[in-house]
């Protein structure tokens, strides 16, 4: 099976040697997908939207072995991004795999018609995704295209998936799951704020986009009831038009219900996986650096940010833990942006913290 150890005990890294572009606007989904793929040995480059994904591919098409493409994104969707990529002669055979919570046969056909090669559902199953990637990059035979078996106790009344099911989605990597859980509530609250703003503005399209993102990211974390509610609300909203949406948008009850489910789900997840949200994973703290040494370390981290390296996650956590008292608040803000994979925001903040001559050097 994918990801299992060999007879000698060494874990097989099935995607070693592959360079993959992940195009995904949801920060939590980017983090989970990138770290799982890196765990299988792949080099991972991230793009935060459809336009950035197209630009990244066309700048260096020979660099990538495959593209993993979200469908619903705020600038251009994954279908349009794939069409634009296919217009370039150099990209006619580049594998493009759709990743979407919409997993019907009609959705699959729509993806294929847009020039994509295949379609995998969300939440991402790393074993299935690995098999699909190996097939399209010439490394394995295709896996049977069968829907996953129903999980026991499925239904909106069940708050969370079973812990073993959640952990398996993270390739049984408990430290990775714990790391993501530290920022899960903050990231989902940010999405709920976007949802409330769209609702207050009477923006039905914005509400549907926010609900779709919440459905995917909470499903990844195993918050079944919250993900199910987001799906039901999204389906309800898709049957409306701007002229008929007012009663739905003006109803305060469903947003309150989502917030309550988030608090309860987050608390149970933290307890089940033994995470202290205030301290992260509880590692022994390293000694604080002085201001000059800390800024030198930040400069090195800025260079990682400019290259798009996912290794910046570990460096940002270290900077947060080793910040002198005078820079502790800024270090926490920087680490929070990196953990959300908001690399552009993190770069801007880092430049504000560095001398002007040092901050300009990575560009």
UniProtKB/TrEMBL annotation:
Q: What is its main location?
A: membrane
One GO cellular component this record assigns the protein to is: plasma membrane
Q: Which InterPro entries match?
A: CheY-like_superfamily (IPR011006), HPT_dom_sf (IPR036641), Sig_transdc_His_kin_Hpt_dom (IPR008207), Sig_transdc_resp-reg_receiver (IPR001789)
List localization entries.
Cell membrane
Q: How does it sit in the membrane?
A: Multi-pass membrane protein
Which SUPFAM superfamilies does the annotation name? CheY-like, Histidine-containing phosphotransfer domain, HPT domain
Enumerate the spans annotated as HPt domain: 173-273
Name one molecular function that GO assigns to this entry. Answer: ATP binding
CDD domains registered for this protein in UniProt: HPT, REC_hyHK_CKI1_RcsC-like
Biological processes per GO annotation: phosphorelay signal transduction system
Which Pfam families is this protein grouped with? Hpt, Response_reg
Which domain of life does the UniProt lineage start with? Bacteria
Q: Which residues carry this modification: 4-aspartylphosphate?
A: 70
Q: Which UniProt keywords apply?
A: ATP-binding, Cell membrane, Membrane, Nucleotide-binding, Phosphoprotein, Transmembrane, Transmembrane helix, Two-component regulatory system
Which parts of the sequence carry Phosphohistidine? 212
- Response regulatory domain residues are 19-137
Q: What is this protein called?
A: Response regulator
Q: Which organism is it from?
A: Metapseudomonas otitidis
């Amino acid at each position: 099976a994918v990801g299992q150890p060999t007879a000698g005990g060494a874990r097989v890294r099935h995607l070693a040697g592959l360079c993959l572009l992940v195009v995904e606007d949801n920060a939590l989904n980017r983090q989970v997908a990138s770290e799982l793929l890196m765990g299988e040995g792949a080099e991972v480059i991230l793009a935060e939207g459809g336009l950035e994904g197209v630009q990244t591919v066309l700048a260096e098409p020979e660099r990538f072995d495959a593209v993993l493409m979200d469908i619903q994104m705020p600038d251009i969707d994954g279908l349009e991004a794939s069409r634009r990529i296919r217009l370039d002669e150099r990209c006619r055979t580049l594998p493009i795999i759709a990743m979407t919570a919409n997993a019907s046969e009609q959705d699959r056909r729509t993806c294929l018609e847009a020039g994509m090669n295949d379609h995998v559902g969300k939440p991402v199953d790393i074993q299935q995704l690995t098999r699909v990637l190996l097939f399209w990059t010439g490394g394995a035979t295709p896996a049977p295209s069968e829907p996953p078996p129903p999980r026991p106790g499925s239904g909106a009344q069940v708050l969370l998936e079973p812990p073993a099911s959640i952990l398996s989605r993270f390739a049984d990597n408990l430290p990775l799951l714990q790391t993501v859980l530290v920022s899960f509530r903050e990231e989902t609250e940010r999405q709920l704020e976007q949802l409330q703003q769209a609702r207050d503005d009477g923006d039905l399209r914005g509400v549907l986009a926010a609900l779709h993102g919440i459905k995917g990211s909470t499903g990844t974390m195993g918050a079944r009831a919250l993900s199910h509610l987001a799906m039901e609300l999204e389906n309800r909203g898709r049957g409306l038009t701007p002229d008929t949406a007012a009663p739905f948008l003006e109803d305060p009850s469903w947003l309150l219900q989502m917030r309550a489910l988030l608090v309860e789900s987050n608390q149970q997840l933290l307890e089940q996986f033994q995470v202290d949200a205030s301290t992260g994973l509880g590692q022994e703290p390293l000694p604080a650096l002085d201001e000059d040494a800390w800024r030198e370390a930040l400069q090195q981290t800025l260079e990682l940010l400019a290259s798009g390296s996912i290794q910046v996650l570990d460096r940002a956590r270290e900077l947060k833990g080793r910040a002198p008292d005078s820079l502790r608040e800024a270090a926490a803000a920087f680490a929070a942006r990196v953990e959300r994979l908001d690399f552009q925001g993190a770069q801007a903040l880092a430049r504000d913290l560095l001398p002007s001559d040092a901050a300009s050097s990575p560009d």
